[in-house]
Amino acid sequence: MRIFGLILLVLSLIVILLYISTPKEALIDSFEGPLTKETVDFGAAEGSSVKVSADTQNKVCGEQSLKIEYNLDPSGYMWVARGYNLDVKGADKWLVAPEDIPWKSYNAVSLMMHGSGQGAVVAFDIKDNLGEIWRYVLDDDTKGWKEVICLFKDFFPRKDWQPDNAERNEIIDFPIKSFQFEPRLAGKGQFSFDCIKVLKAK
Ligand SMILES: [Ca+2]
Ligand SMILES: [Ca+2]
């Protein structure tokens, strides 16, 4: 019996050590380096337009952030994505590969958003390991930078569209492979984003 007690103790210690050694957060994308058609997967429906560039004026992590300037037609759509298994293969510029992130240790993804406080909304989507797209809605209620902590439990599966090959099981299947921004209010606007992190939020 004593040996089982010892094994249990060692296993408990390993679990505790693993818990302590997992960082509280991990930066996964800071949008450093070139931001072009080769490194960002972006586009818009006909009649709408979207442009991306490096914002070196407004940034929080590193030397620059991702600036998105757009003009959205009322019936249009657009996307600006980074990550893996996208049409633009060079958009795989995360600082940590999806499979190397201990997703189960985290419960949220956070980002820095530079807005104008004009009340626009931006969909922030994540695509899971089986292709299902989950949405969190960002409100532009602040002029300047704000941090948004998006708990995994507050994402919902997109009902308006999913990729044909997505397994729509309504479970977030880790690892998450990509994220994307989609401004949702018609008209012109611009945003900058920086410091995409995974974290254990309270
Ligand atoms: Ca940055
Ligand atoms: Ca899923």
Describe the secondary-structure layout.
Blueprint: H1 2-21, E1 25-29, E2 41-44, E3 49-55, E4 65-72, E5 78-83, E6 108-116, E7 121-127, E8 133-139, E9 143-151, E10 156-157, E11 178-183, E12 187-199
Antiparallel strand pairs: 1-12, 2-5, 3-4, 4-12, 5-11, 6-9, 6-12, 7-8, 7-11, 8-10
This protein binds calcium ion (2 copies).
One calcium ion (CA) binds at residues 128, 130, 132, 167, 169, 171, 173.
Q: Identify the overall geometry.
A: elongated
Number of helical segments with 4 or more residues = 1
- Low-pLDDT segments: none
CATH topology: Jelly Rolls
Number of domains: 1
The CATH homologous superfamily is termed: Galactose-binding lectin
The percentage helix is under 10%
Number of strands: 12
> How many angstroms separate the termini?
39 Å
Rg from Cα: 19 Å
CATH class descriptor name: Mainly Beta
The helix-and-strand class reads mainly beta
What is the string of helix and strand elements? HEEEEEEEEEEEE
* Mean pLDDT across every amino acid position: 95
CATH hierarchy: architecture: Sandwich
Strand coverage percent: 35-45%
Description:
With 202 residues, the chain is mostly beta strands. It has a single domain (24-199), classed as Jelly Rolls (Sandwich), CATH 2.60.120.430. Helices cover 10% and strands 41% of the residues. A hairpin with a 5-residue loop joins strand 7 and strand 8. The protein is elongated and about 75 Å long. It starts with a helix and ends with a strand. The protein binds calcium ion (CA) (2 copies). One calcium ion binds next to loops.
